[in-house]
Amino acid sequence: MSKPATAADVADHNLADDVLAFDRVVRKTSPYAHIVSPRFYTETFAETLLDWLESQQDWHLREGILFEQYELGFSRFTHCKEIEGLWDGAVLARLRDGVTSAMGTPVSGRINIHAHKLVPGQFTNIHTDMIPEETHRLVVQLNRGRADDSGGNLMLLTGPRPADISVVFKQDSNSAIGFKLGAESFHAVGRVKADTRFTVIYTFLSDSAPEGKYSNFVAS
Predict the structure, then answer these.
(1) Are 37 and 103 in contact (CB under 8 A)?
(2) Where are the domains of the chain?
(3) Which pLDDT value is given to residue 211?
């Protein structure tokens, strides 16, 4: 006989309902296995989070051979009540279960969350993110509506050359794309031509990864 739900259980369930939609998820196989969710957050939370991202002044510029972008981690913002659903345990547990179901393979409850901001001229070149401890990536797009010719589209490729582009995703706000990281997971972000491109990045970590190296990952 199952135990009756406690007030805390109900509160956790309600918060997960308030934050995550993650519905109508489709799994595709080309150029490699990936999932697409046309509505990741609830409309209310997506709007709140986008407002919050637009208001932040603490973006850190990172530049390298493969990329140029602004980054922001959420570990310093646990006092921000309006977005605390991002790292709530019940929300992350539901996300873990949803990604496991959609991908057809188990993912860990150790999840890192950070955000990227790209402005005109910034980009991410073709790469695979082959870091042993990082198993899957999920990218949530947030914006006020971006024209098709504004640049900054996420692309999946069959190989390491621009000619290998297989899928180019439209930048529909509150849509999400997830995939397993590995030798075949070539992806890139085209150079932004206009306006600002925001994304929230969920990285799923192997359960065997050392705790000290990934202090920003949380267990759900």
Answers:
(1) no
(2) 11-55+73-209
(3) 73
Please state, in angstroms and rounded to a whole number, the distance separating the CA atoms of residues 164 and 24.
28
Q: Which long-range contacts (CB under 8 A, 24 or more apart) does 206-210 make?
A: 206/108, 206/110, 206/132, 206/133, 206/134, 206/135, 207/108, 207/110, 208/133, 209/110, 209/133, 210/133
> Rounded CA gap, 218 and 143, in Å?
26
Residue with tokens 């939370």: 45
| Cα separation, 154 vs 167, whole angstroms | 8
What is the CATH code for 11-55+73-209? 2.60.120.620
Distances (CA, A) of 126 to 4, 72, 105, 116, 219: 51, 22, 25, 17, 30
Secondary structure of residue 160 in the 3-state scheme: coil
pLDDT tens digits for 5-59?
Answer: 454 444 556 889 999 999 999 999 999 999 999 999 999 999 999 999 999 999 9
How far apart are the C-alpha atoms of 129 and 186, rounded to whole Å? 8
Query: In the block, which residue shows the tokens 């956790």?
Result: 12
DSSP string across 171-200? --TT-EEEEE-STT--EEEPPB-SS-EEEE
Instruction: Give the separation between CA 41 and CA 47, rounded to whole angstroms.
Output: 9
Q: Looking at the whole model, is its pTM more than 0.85?
A: yes
Helix, strand, or coil (residue 202): strand
Q: Is residue 123 within 8 Å of 190, Cβ to Cβ?
A: yes
